[in-house]
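The pair is quoted verbatim as follows:
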Amino acid sequence: MKIVFYGDSITDMNRIREHEDGTVYSYGVGYTNFVVGELTCEDPKKYECINRGISGNRIVDLYARVKIDVWNHKPDVLSILIGVNDVWHEISRENGVELPRWERIYRTLIEETKERLPNVKIMILEPFILEGSATDGEERWQRFLAVKEYAKVAKKIAEDYNLTFVPLQAKFDEAEAKFGGDYYTFDGVHPLAAGAKMISREWLKAFKTEIDK
C-alpha cells in the first residue's frame, strides 16, 4: 500500500529529500515520522510511505504540484493537511488565500485527483491553531483565528466527497487546557514531539477506519 502525505511545514518538518536512488532516510521530525514508524515497524514491506510536505505551502501550491507529487505516484491513500499558511501569509505579507478561493481550489484538487485516481482513499486533516508566539498581539491573534473557519470548510469538503476527516483542534484544545500549549507546539502551529505524536495517534485511528471501509 502506497501512502502520500501532502501538505505544508507541519507535514514537511525538516524531512530529508530522497537521494537520487530514491532511498528515504528521514521523514522529518513531525507526525509523519511517528505514523510511518508505527505502520512499518512490524512489516516494513507492507507500506510505501512518501512525504511530500513543503514548508510554506498554501492550497494553491498544493494544486500547482499535485501532478508530480501525487498523481504520478499513484498512491492508494492520500493524506492532506493544509490551511494555516493560507491565513498566516495574509497576515504577514498579504499573500494568503481567502476562504472562498481556498475552498474552490481544494474542491478542484479533490475532484481532479478522484478523476485521475478513482480508487484512491483521501484523508483530510483538520488545520489547527494554538495561542503561541506566532500570534503575538491581540489583533494578530484575532485574525489568526480564521484558521478555525478554514477547518470548518475542510470538514465540509470531506463530508461532501465522503472522505475521511481527521479532527485535531479539539485534541489540541484539550491538551492546552490541561498542560499548556507550549508543550505541544513551539509557536502555536508547528508541533513539538508531543504534538506530533498526538496528530499521529488521530491519523492512525482514522486510517484504520478508512482502510476498513
The chain has ten helices and five strands. Residues 2-211 form a domain with the Rossmann fold fold (CATH 3.40.50.1110).
